[in-house]
Amino acid sequence: MARFGRDMATDIEDLAQSIHDRRAILFVGAGVSMVVGLPSWQALIDHMMRELLLEAETDPGPALGHPILAEYYRIRHGSIGPLRSWMDREWKVSEERVRDSRIHQLIVELGFPLIYTTNYDRNLEVAFESHGRPFAKIANERDLTFAGSEDTQIVKFHGDFDDDASLVLTETDYFSRLSFDSPLDVKFRADAMSRTLLFVGYSMQDLNIRLLLHRIWESWSRSPYQDNRPPSYVFLPCAGPAQAAVLKRWGITVLSSAETDPEAALTEFLERLAARVAELRGEGR
Fold it and tell me: Any transmembrane segments, and where (predicted)?
């Protein structure tokens, strides 16, 4: 079930050791980008409703969700190019704001060898650049051929604004990814089977992510070595018993907090984790 207070100390110790040993993956969701001012999915839905001349009173656009609306946008306009351009303009914050974000600073400090993100924006890349840390961005199979093993790999799991073809935005895009046979899916399965996972900035409602976690659990459940599976964690500021129980069944430990503000809760958690990693590295903080 969800871990609170002192019960989380053992999990932080295990996570810190995995990070220190470069055996951990950080998976970053939209909640991390929203702390520096990026719009919510609702803002995207509202924009598409206006562009498509849909009336909220007669067209249940918000209820349909952004993938179906983006699919309709592609049908109406022939491509998502204009929508992608709008998102690129609107989903952009200043370098200064990212540099001043304590959450982004802590992510850089922690030094994960692998960071996966479903965010399209460049905030993680900007954070690494601002703090002078090397990284390799991977958004497609071409990028895989240039990525070194020493620098942190930032894997844009749902695409990147610099490559329209890589974006997972419409319903067709999401359905295509459900087969999990793209080069990035193959890479993630291989990486995830041998490393500790930590998810932050997620509500864990994303169907692709939940199905991917289920597939990993299935792979381990069929293995005679399932007792050797590395641990996986998700930090959720508020976690109910149903969600925690389902994720626990898949081998995901839910970490939570008594702090009611999501940004403050995540910052506090990452501070504790970074402090322990620094101790293991022999660094003063």
Answer: 24-44
pLDDT score recorded for residue 56: 63
Q: Same domain for 11 and 61?
A: no
Domain count, the chain: 2
Query: pTM surpassing 0.85?
Result: yes
Q: Which residue from 93, 106, 63 is spatially nearest to 201, judged by alpha carbons?
A: 106
Only one residue has tokens 């844009």, namely 156
Contact by Cβ (8 Å): 176, 218: no
**Segments forming the whole domain that contains residue 18:** 5-38+94-281
Both 77 and 158 in one domain: the answer is no
One-letter amino acid for residue 2 of the chain: A
Q: By the 8 A CB rule, do 174 and 207 touch?
A: yes
Residues 84 and 189 in one domain: no
Residue 235 CB burial class (10 angstroms; 0-12, 13-18, ≥19): buried
Q: What is the DSSP letter of 69?
A: H
Q: Which residue has the higher pLDDT, 276 or 165?
A: 276
**How far is it, in rounded angstroms, from Cα 137 to Cα 166?**
13
